[in-house]
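Practice problem: predict the structure.
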Amino acid sequence: MTTTPRVRPASEAQRAERSDANHGEPTLDFAAEAPYDAYVHASTLHGLQQPISDDPGEMSFLMISQIMELYFGLICYELREAARVLDTDDVWGALAPLRRTALHLTGLNAAWLGMRWMTPADFNRFRDQLGDASGFQSATYRRMEFLLGIKSPTVIRPFRRQGRIYTELVAALRAPSLYDAVLALLHRRDPGVPSAVLARDPTAEPEIDPDVEAAWVRVYADPRTDHDLYVLGEALVDIAEEFGDWRYKHLRAVARTMGAKPGSGGSSGMAWLQRSMAKLVFPELWSARTFM
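Answer:
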C-alpha cells in the first residue's frame, strides 16, 4: 500500500541554495509539521508506550520489546527481498539484503544489553500485570522464523481469533522460505542436487539432505571471493550465527530474570527455550563443514 508523501523532495542544488540562504544554519521555519517527524513519524512512535503498572522499570522492558519488534519487521523485509532476488539467479544482488540482515540481527542482539539491569526482583514488580502476554505470541517473530525455514503449524494457533494476522501467518507458513529459495538455486546450479529437494513440504522444518550437504561441500572447495555461491554460503552462515546468538541471549535473559520458573505464556520457560535452540537455520551449511 502506498501513501501520499508528506516530505517534499529536494535536489542537491536546492539544498545548497537553502544552506546559502541560511548562512549555514539549520532551517527553523516550516509551513507545516517538521519534515523529520513527517518522515519518521517520531511523535507516533513515542505515543505507543503504554505501561500497565506504576513501576518505572516497565517502560524499559516495554520499549525494548517494541524496538525488537521493529527489528523483526525489518529483518523480514530484507529476507523477503533476498529470496526474491535469488529466485532470479542474481546471487550478487541478493548479498546486499543478506548482509544488511546480519547487521540488523547484530543490532537486535545489542538490544538485550538494555535488559541487563533487570533482576528477578525488578521483573517481579510488574510481571504479574503482564498476565498471559509473552514474546511467544509475536506474529512478526514467527514470520521471521518462517522466512529462515523454521516452521511449525502449532506456533500460529494463538492468532486464530485475529483474522488478518492469522491469514497472513498461514500464508507465510505455506510459502517457500529463504531456505527453499537457496535449495532451488543450488538445484539450478548443481546437477548433483536432485529435483526431489524442491518437492519438500514448505511447512516442515528443514532436515539435513545429503545431496544438499554434498553440494555445499563442492561449493566450499572453491573459496574464491568471486565465487558467488561460496560468498552466499558465508553470508547465510553469518545470518544463522547471529540468529542463534539472539536465541541464546533470550535464554540468558530469561535465566537471569526468572530462572526456571514457568513462562508467562504457559510454557516451561527456560526449558522450552533450550529445546527451541536445537533447531538450526540452514542446517546443511553447518553439517557440511564436517566433510570439508
